[in-house]
Each structure stands twice: as structure tokens, then as C-alpha cells.
Amino acid sequence: MPKLVDRDSRRREVVxxxxxxxxxxxxxxxxxxxxxxxxxxxxxxxxxxxxxxQELMRFAMQTMLDRVGDRLQRRIDEAGDPSAFDxxxxxxxxxxxxxxxxxxxxxxxxxxxxxxDFITASRTNPAIGGDLAHRAAAGTRTxxxxxxxxxxxxxxxRPDLDIDIETERLTSLLDGLSLNAILHPxxxxxxxxxxxxxxxxDRLAD
Length: 206
Prior knowledge:
The protein is 74% helix and 0% strand. By secondary structure, it is mainly α. It is elongated. The termini are far apart.
């Protein structure tokens, strides 16, 4: 009898192979042939699951966003009811959640590196994921805004605090930390990223 292959599992294997190629050699090197070789498959097998390079790229980007979202949800579930937290506990929770968006370990470094390549490529070729890149940017802002709103609800906010402006400031901080941690890891390490993020959140309450 022919061996049964789980379609979703095989597609995930192919995507993981794409991530490895992209991290090691750059997304521009992640051709169907290169991904097939990395996955230990023939190119016909890859084309059985993905019609072309564009479909593979889009699926890979969506998979990455889903994985980040799943990690965030697990963090939220594990934290319990934030309404019972005092302001300092809530700031620590906020830092923990937002840290999931920073390249602080091997998994998140790989995701951030590939995501930077994705959004750069989609700027000139929107079909491979321009809408996904925009959705990710909007999702980050939504998360940041919700966290800031919850923080201000737990304590008297600064009288000059503007949630819209602070959302953009904190989103830009996260983007800058991620970009620098990927491009210049000798200049800023994970511990410093966390310290910068925590300091920013603490000062919102000053």
C-alpha cells in the first residue's frame, strides 16, 4: 500500500525548510528547488503541495504570523486574570507579551530575520505578501494599544498621556529593537532589548 502522507504536516515541513534556507542564505535564495533539497524532497513533491513560489511564500508568512499569535495567546492564558494585577505586575506582563515580538532567542531571531526579508520583498512584489505584512503591522498596533489601555486603566495615567501617540512610539520602539538586534547583534543583545522595553513601560507611569 502507498504510504499515506498528512497534507498539513508535509506543508509545515516544507515551510520549515523554507525558513531554514531563508535564515541561512536569505529569502531570495529560497527557490522551490532549494526548499525541496532542504526538505529532502523532490521538486515535484513540493509542487504537489504548493502550486508556485508565490503560494509557498504566502503560506510561509501566514504560518509565521500564526505561530507568533499562538505564543502570545498561550502567554495570555498562562497569566490569568490581569484585572487582579497591580500596576507593576501589569507592566511586567506587558513586557512579557511584547517580548514575544522581539528576537530574544533562536526561534524568534529566525522569525524576525525571515519576516524582515518578507516585508522587504513584498514592498516591490506585493503579491507575495503585501497584505499579510500590512495585517501584521496593524495587528502589532492593536496589541500595543490594548496593552496600553489596560495599563492606564489599572493606575492613574500621566495627564499628558496620549494613547494614539504612545501606541506609535511603542510600536516604533519594538520595530527598532527587532531590526537592530537582527542587523547589529554586536551592538544590542537580548538582555538590553528587554531592559529598554521595560524601562519604556515603567516611564509611562512616571
